[in-house]
Fold:
Amino acid sequence: MARVLIGAGTSAGYPSAMLLIRRRAEHAGHEAPPLGVLGGLVITGAATVAAALVLAALLVGWELRAAHPFLDVRLLASNGALTRAYARNGLTLMGTYVILYGLTQWLEAARGLSAYQAGLALMPMGVLTAVTARMVSKRTGVRRPLTVCAVLLLVGAVSVLFVGSGTPLAVVVAVSAVFGLTSGTGTVANQTVLYQEAPAATVGTASGLLRTFGYIGSIASAAITGTAFRSSVDDSGLHLIAWVLVVISALVLVMTVFDRQLAKADRRHAN
Structure:
C-alpha cells in the first residue's frame, strides 16, 4: 500500500506543476506560459542531469571501495543479463512517461481539454497497465512478453505520428491505451528477469536498482517533453516526441530480440 501511495505521489508531481504554470499564465493574461518559464524548466533539468552525473561518478568511486556496497557496481559489470533488464526497464518506462506527460499537456493546450478531462482521457492507460501486469504475472516465460512489449511500444510510437489536433478523441485514447499495455507487460517481465538473474544474496539491492532505472527513465521523459514543447505545445512538438519514441522502441526491440539469455532463462525455468 505504501508503494502505491509513493507511486501516486511521484506520478502527480510533474503534471501538477505544469497545471500550476498554465493557470498562473492564464491569470496573468497570457495565452500560453512564457517561453522563459518553459526554458527555465529545460535548463534546470539539464543542470540537474550535469549535477547528477558528477555525483554518480563520486558514488561509483565510493562504492567500488566499500566492503559491502549499497550500489554493487561490480554486479552491473559482471551480470550482463541483469544490466540489460535494467536498461530495458528504464527505456520502456521512459517511453511510457513521455506519452503520459506529453499527451496530457497536448490534450489541454492543443485540444482545449481541462485537466480533469485530460485525466479521464488517459485513465484507460492506467487501467490497462494494471490489468496487463496481472495477466503477465501468471506466465512463466519472459522472452515472449518482452518482445510483445517492445513491439507494442514501437506500434504506439508510430501511431502517435498520425495523431493531430483533428484526430477524434477516441482514437487518441486508443493510442494511449497501447502504452498502458506496454507498461504492464514490460514492468512485470523485467522484474521476473531480475529475480531469475540476480544472486539471492543481492536481490534486495538488485530490486532497488531496477526501480532506480525506472526513475531515471521518468526523469529523462520530462526532459524530452520539455524540449519538444519548449516554444509551444502543438502537433509538431507531439510528433517530435513520437520520433524520439520510435528510436527508443527500436532500441528496446533490438535489445530484446538479440538477447539470447532470455531464451536460455525460459528453457532453464521450463526444465
User: Anything to note?
Assistant: The chain is about 80% helix and 0% strand. The chain has a mean pLDDT of 81. The radius of gyration is 19 Å. Residues 43 and 242 are 22 Å apart (CA to CA).
